[in-house]
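ok trying this again, last paste got cut off
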Amino acid sequence: MLIYLSRNIHGVPLPFYGGSTCWQKIGWIISISLVVLFSSSKSFSPVQISAACLPEKVIISFLENPPRSHSLGSWKARLGRSEAEKAMDTSRIILVAGATGGVGRRVVDLLRKKGLPVRVLVRNEEKARRMLGPDVDLIVGDITKASTLIPEYFKGVRMVVNAVSVIVGPKEGDTPDRAKYSQGIKFFEPEIKGDSPEMVEFIGMKNLINAVKENVGLRSGKLVFGFEGTSSRELPWGALDDVVMGGVSESTFQIDPNGGENGGPTGIFRGVVSTANNGGFTSIRTRNFSIAEDLSAYDGLELRIKGDGRRYKLIVRTSRDWDTVGYTTGFDTVKDQWQSVRLPFSSLRPIFRARTIPDAPPFNPSEIISLQLMFSKFEYDGKLNPTFVEGQFQLPISTIRAYMKEPITPRFVHVSSAGVTRPDRPGLDLSKQPPAVRLNRELGFILTYKLKGEDLIRESGIPYTIVRPCALTEEPAGADLIFDQGDNITGKISREEVARICVAAIESPYACDKTFEVKSVIPFSEPYTVDPENPPPEKDYNLYFQTLKEGITGKESLGQTPVPV
């Protein structure tokens, strides 16, 4: 569609009066029309408007956010959100699943003491509030029932500690507080209580991963646009050039099926830019996403581009309104080279009508509505693009993806069990193995399904830590520890110590993508106590994590000797 506006409307000359007021009003009228045309078009093609001799300060106000007849402060109302919503979006909430269990409730306590935001996933609300307090941030759900894991429950969750486990207890019965099972030293003939290992450890794990995956993110990031191997995701881009201000620049976005880095498809932003008629910019912008893109699990956007030596801008919008703040950052390119450009969300600055808005709401990566790429003579706040040159330009873009900044820390910490790879291990002397290994079949293949659950985590793409404690006891934390890999050790360890390891792992890049076993050096026959007047020093668990290697699960034969730290 072509709309042409001159200084004559229906043959009647428009008054100019030597000022800009009249033309600003006309600009607002044009802008309102653009809003309707652009936002309602399903296959939106460029809307071209030619307006002769518009004053430059009016043009500049249009450059990045075409105005409409609202007061400058009205963007606040349009972007306004409750403080609770903002807190939910910006908090890095840690979800603890299995929060009423022996390890889970200790994890909750430790996280609270550190002042970290915690949400608990439990099956029994009354029990949880009695145990954890009436003010606990709580959601009720059952990982064995996917329908109970409602997406809204996990909004704001960035990390998970999973302490859910199939319930095992003595055949002869137990006390209401499960004292026989919890003590971990004396042997009682065990049986499964409640849901089967398959339902809890495997199906439940699958449900939990699916419920949190989008919120905690993937190590490889999330493809927002582009072509990557067998994966692709296209977006509806349309040109938005200085013709809206009477300029003559023009651009387009096309898919070149063979223009990519390795001969595959790529997108190309190309055009011709000119400063004639007070112009000087071209851009492409996506149509508003039907559902807001939530990239809050990530730290920025990475563009894979073939540069031309010029400086471009990325504009990200978090409102469906046309005339609103655009969170903007510039990036330089290297001529004739494919390069990856990382643009941290922290570098995005709120721009409204080419000016920085210092008191704008912080950028909310969970509510991304549209993207825009721009090549412009103008930066913002009156600055000019130092690389701007009139004429043809071309920027191939193979991908835009959200990324996690390095070093990556675990987003999913799982409490499993030592022994999960041993039931089918050839040549193993079962008489020297823990009861769960000897009784794996009788206990519904408990260790087999624990291993299957572990594999789901490792294959999910979520940065993880898998902790495999030996026999759990109610003894205090503080004993010297042995960390090992390969699933060979036996022994005992306190639940308090395991909880501390989980909390430390959340913050440690050294624990990321590691699977390990852990026990104390104290023999089973020797009780471990702590003198309250002389407690042991706190451990630096990073010293342990640094000794671990990725890719070791115990499925392979290692023959390593455990190394105390």
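PB: full thing came through this time. The longest strand covers residues 391-403.
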